[in-house]
Amino acid sequence: MAKQKTDHTPEQSAAPSAHRSWRTRLTGWMRGPQDKPVDVLPVRVGDAQYRSKALPPTTLGLDQALIWVVIGLLAWGLVMVYSASIAMPDNPRFGKILPYHFALRHAISLGVGFVAALLAFQVPMERWEQLAPRIFMLALVLLVIVLIPHVGVSVNGSRRWLSLGVMNFQPSELAKFAVLLYAADYMVRHMAVKERFFRAVLPMAFAVLIVGVLLLAEPDMGAFLVIVIIAMGILFLGGVNARMFFGMGALVVLAFVAMIATSPWRRERIFAYLNPWDMEHALGKGYQLTHALIAIGRGEVTGVGLGRSVEKLHWLPEAHTDFLFSVIGEEFGFVGLMVLIFAFYWLMRRMTEIGREAIILDRVFSGLVAQGVAIWMGFQAFINMGVNLGALPTKGLTLPLMSFGGSAILFNLIAIAVVLRVDYENKALQSPRRA
Prior knowledge:
mainly alpha, globular, 435 residues
């Protein structure tokens, strides 16, 4: 094959292949040795001819369907938070509060989240890539600060919040977003060494380990599990060798098993999960699970009706946060739960499509971020639903976009805004007006 002409300087030509345009490498996909196609994409995207179905390539705009599904989930969540918390004033634990106390705070969180999302959408993905290491360092600093006595707010024996006066801020939610950006940026910077375990995986594993140590000190094992899955998912999508990936997965499983085995209260929670109806567990660690199952069972096919849940009347703890899914099941039944599950499935699929399209358009960081958000929200929703249905051990994870929680809603909306920014830039690259 004749040597092609190039405009690169000798210094540029000597640069590692990881810094070359992936568009150039993709173009060479059809011109491998002996005219055999050679897949040289740096990441796993499936069909190289893939295009997003969100909007036609000639249309410059936002993914309207994605926006309306998110708004629908947020609105449904606000209604359910009000329904699940309306009886809270009767509980002496919460003092003298109004029936709409939690719904009002949730609505304020949504307002703050929308403003933050609008600001996040204005930031180009190139800038997010530059800020990724700094945001990660900020998350580490806040995770350290929250552990300082008399600084971090302790609730139910866990020190996870920082008081901001009008609201409490949870650094672990920022850590999820920070690890997402950092892992995507890390894979882009280390594409050339993704086949070498020590140079490709260990540095990222060490960063996640530091976050994990700080989260387990709170303790917040649920957030740590989500962060591990986000990091591993991005490493896999970034093209890390499959043997290294599954080996790393096995080490992660062994690590979590060891943490459970060495913690008496975690072991007790596992035993309660295996047999929640036992008298010893039903009044202890299995109390929430048994009442969650009772709530879902009462809902049957079509539910008892909005606002008519009985379990939310001081029987089911944390009904407006971790166990909102059970209240939805009681009031809307099997039909309502299936609609909710399908909405989350559609949402994750749509964000994955946006990410795949970005990678095809030579925007690897943007694509990994969009797919990382899909992994984050999809996995956390899966865990929350599994806990409520008794399929998984109890974990302190909320239902994304719906459960009460200011920090969670804030970063959920920021993450969605970043995905919409990825989609917007995808459309800008494909628009004839751009050319």
